[in-house]
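Usage

Read records sequentially. Each one opens with the input sequence:
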Amino acid sequence: MKRFIILSLSILVLGSGCSSLLSRNDGKNKTHRYVLEYDPPVDTTASKSPPWQANVWVRDFSITEPYRQNEIVYRASKYQMEMYDFELWALKPKIMISDMVFKHLRDAQIFQQVSRSIEVENVDYVLRGEITALEEVDQDSTWFAHLAMSMYFVNNHTQKVVWTRSWDVQEKLPKNEPESVVRSLSHLLEIVVTEAVSDLDSLMAAIQSQSKGQSTRTKQAPKEKPLTPPINLPPPENLR
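and closes with the structure output:
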């Protein structure tokens, strides 16, 4: 009887050790969490001229339903959308992208103040956005990163959209693996935001030229005369 108990305990301990070792070495079921990240380039224009005297609030961007969750989305075809079980975003995608846009615009130093806080005072402009694709796309043996989004720059005094632009870009992955997807999506986001910053700098110069007949960065930001026709946006409470 004693021999049976000892043998049973030995098998139990051995089995537990094997199970622990197996689970520790099995990387297939290990959860990985990722973030979009890049270092915003130094803006040479900002270093040569003082910033526009305007306060900008970067709101949380909205995002379409499939991309709200933390699971990274991938497509095997136009009609098939799946989500990874163990490859996850560390933050909600809309918060992650909104934060990156804010950091890039702040570091570009083209505006007097850029804020993410809803309590910021004397806001001249609001930057909104919508994310419509943030995913991996698989085409046979080739993988791509796919990013689609739009931005809207709103004059907070007139509630008119003075600038808007949309992007739908993709990049071929050097390796067919989730981390390469995240790296390429980060690169695509950097391209998009760099173009947006350049557009906004040119926009302010054009608005100043229209309203004052000259382009001077030290002038106060105009509160009227939007550069482009207004676009009807959903009320703020409807933006996700």
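Summary fields computed downstream for this record:
- The mean pLDDT is 81.
- The chain has one domain: 31-238.
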